[in-house]
Amino acid sequence: MSYLLRLRLSDRPGSLGMLAVELGAVGADIRSLEVIERGDGYAIDDIVVELPSTSLPDTLITAAQNVHDVRVESLRPFSDVLDTHLELELIDVVAAAGSDRLQVLVDHSPRVLRASWAMVVAKPGTDVLRLFASSGAPETPLERADWLPLESAQGFASDNDWVPDVWRDAAAPLGDGAKALLLGRTGGPEFRPSEVARLGYLTGIISTVIP
User: Fold this and answer.
1) Does pTM surpass 0.85?
2) 105-125 b/e (C-beta count within 10 Å ≥ 16 → b)
3) CA–CA separation, 105 and 40 (whole Å)
4) Contact (Cβ atoms closer than 8 angstroms) between residue 94 and residue 101
5) Where are the domains of the chain?
6) Which CATH architecture best describes the domain 2-77?
7) What's the pLDDT tens digit per position in 26-52?
């Protein structure tokens, strides 16, 4: 079984080596790694690990936290590998999709941006319209979207009063910003600033191929 670990760890030589040793001790095999963000003395990494079916996923948390200054931000089942070129694939697929472009966008963007679900939403008046949605998108209607129209990509704090407790969200404008691509992670983690920027770059390019 594969899992995606999001970790905050010290950005210093040897940290990843010590982490690999601890994960290996519980039978975990590191399949891929991506640095999501770097700050003053720390790094946020997404690590895909393979764990034997006989092992409990909680052993990954325990192993990672055996390393000094490592904090596990989230642990989720994962069925893919990290691939930073998936954005180009998504752009090509959307561009070739004809009239179904927006549905194709919400169907594929969760995999590319490691979200739980995606929606295209708009607010032409006082009501919020869900125009397209991926599988797994919440059935609960989005009653408020005061942030529309949207000028640039942004992440939303989980304590905003319009955000349901289990949502962690980010959105980016499509076209003139009257519509937006809304991504959600059920249970977290929250979108890091670098991920929000990545979302904004991607939707900016995709907006050029969506009428």
Assistant:
1) no
2) bbbbbbbbbbbbbbbbbbbee
3) 35
4) yes
5) 2-77, 86-206
6) 2-Layer Sandwich (3.30)
7) 999 988 888 888 888 889 998 989 999
